[in-house]
């Protein structure tokens, strides 16, 4: 006879199965939640890259085609492709222009990814993005930093020509990057927070 208060072997087996089912259920939920969060983060990065690429591309066209009248739209993006394949990009027609356009959006997406990673790792930046004023402040710093990194680090390693600080174009691009690169990326990163990984939806207006 089994004494009262002492579980039988069948009770132990049943309790073990229940614990196992609960653990499996929790693990499944965790994995589904993680996948959802990662998908939302990827969508956010791609959206930030697309928006930044579009704004920065329009800025480059406005500067080179409409204001300075030194290039056509095709030549603007051929110039970007020239960083990869050299001066021959100028003779490649629409094919090298398409390559330059693709590289342009790829670079914008890479910078968006870098910034999102910073937000997820650095609480101070995430806190600044909680307000419109803080978002603007971050954008005014990050955008010019992107331009400086591109002009002094990335472009010298490519086959493109660096824009010297002695030219007016350097300073126009430095300021412009705050608005066409820093601002869209910072705005799209709003809502990300190291302690709130469940909140990866599109940023809300403050």
Topology:
Elements: H1 9-67, H2 73-85, H3 93-121, H4 123-128, H5 132-157, H6 168-188
Average pLDDT reading = 85
Strand fraction equals under 5%
Bin the helical content. Answer: over 70%
The topology string of helices and strands comes to HHHHHH
Q: Which radius of gyration do the C-alpha atoms yield?
A: 25 Å
Number of helices: 6
Summarize the structure.
75% of the residues lie in helices and 0% in strands.
Q: What do you see in this structure?
A:
This protein is mostly helical. It has helices at 9-67, 73-85, 93-121, 123-128, 132-157, 168-188. Helix 1 crosses helix 3 (93-121), helix 1 (9-67) runs antiparallel to helix 6 (168-188) and helix 2 (73-85) packs across helix 3 (93-121). The longest helix is centred in the N-terminal third of the chain and has 59 residues, at 9-67. The chain is globular, with a radius of gyration of 25 Å.
Write out key terms for the chains shown.
mainly alpha; globular; 206 residues
